[in-house]
Recover the amino acids of this structure.
């Protein structure tokens, strides 16, 4: 089996099929965890070879153990977690199905398992961050790909014109064309191009700094407890209630409403 974190845009739930139903290990594709607009899927190698060819977005592959412990114990800070005891004849875990009154069994969250949970949480965070900043960069550009592709040429020729003005065999064919089409002098157009380029690069730089800082906050966490804090503060993903109570983010131990300073808007980014 393969275990993949992927954007939900790539997932067609009509393609889901479970080995417990097919009794054929080659035919398995199921969603084992979701957060915001990303999913962790479990998929057989044969099915993967077919489905993945349709995907347009990037994905992240992880180990079976990372997927199992991350999906079952995401955000768990207690020393033990619980999973549904039952498994099917093929040994496929039912831990991510609704409990529905079935018996659960405790699982000790050893240091190794906690590390896998943290790896899972960080990988999910990075996929969410990458996707969000890709959207922000596209919106910052606010133009077609072919127009964006011309920006470096425009900047180069604008600088070429302003510094050499045709001397030493310097040529600016694209700038010449644009100036003629827009009825502008080359001086005016070149300065406009460089002013816009500088503004874009300043905004892009600010955006990249925000991305790097936020990703670093996740990667620098040393515990699931710390990751829960960053998830809540940056992504609007609520930490476990008992952690919020212990941290004093609720009105009291019995009144679980959040204090105004710790009110959380679900899945609203703060970076």
């Amino acid at each position: 089996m393969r275990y993949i974190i992927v954007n939900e845009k790539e997932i067609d739930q009509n393609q889901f099929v479970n080995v417990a139903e097919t009794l054929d290990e080659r035919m398995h594709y199921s969603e084992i965890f979701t957060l915001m607009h990303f999913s962790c899927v479990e998929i057989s190698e044969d099915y993967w070879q077919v489905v993945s060819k349709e995907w347009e977005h990037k994905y992240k592959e992880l180990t079976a153990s990372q997927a199992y412990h991350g999906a079952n114990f995401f955000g768990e800070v207690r020393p033990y977690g619980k999973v549904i005891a039952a498994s099917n004849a093929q040994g496929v875990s039912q831990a991510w199905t609704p409990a529905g009154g079935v018996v659960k069994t405790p699982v000790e969250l050893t240091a190794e398992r906690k590390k896998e949970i943290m790896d899972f949480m960080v990988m999910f965070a990075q996929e969410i961050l990458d996707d969000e900043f890709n959207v922000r960069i596209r919106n910052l550009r606010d133009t077609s790909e072919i127009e964006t592709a011309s920006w470096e040429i425009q900047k180069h020729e604008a600088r070429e014109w302003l510094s050499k003005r045709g001397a030493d065999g310097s040529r600016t064919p694209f700038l010449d064309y644009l100036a003629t089409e827009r009825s502008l002098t080359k001086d005016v157009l070149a300065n406009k191009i460089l002013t816009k380029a500088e503004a874009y690069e300043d905004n892009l730089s600010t955006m990249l700094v925000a991305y790097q800082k936020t990703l670093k906050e996740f990667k620098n966490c040393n515990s699931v407890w710390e990751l829960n804090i960053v998830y809540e503060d940056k992504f609007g993903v609520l930490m476990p209630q008992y952690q919020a109570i212990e941290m004093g983010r609720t009105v009291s131990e019995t009144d679980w409403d959040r204090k105004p300073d710790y009110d959380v808007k679900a899945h609203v980014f703060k970076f």
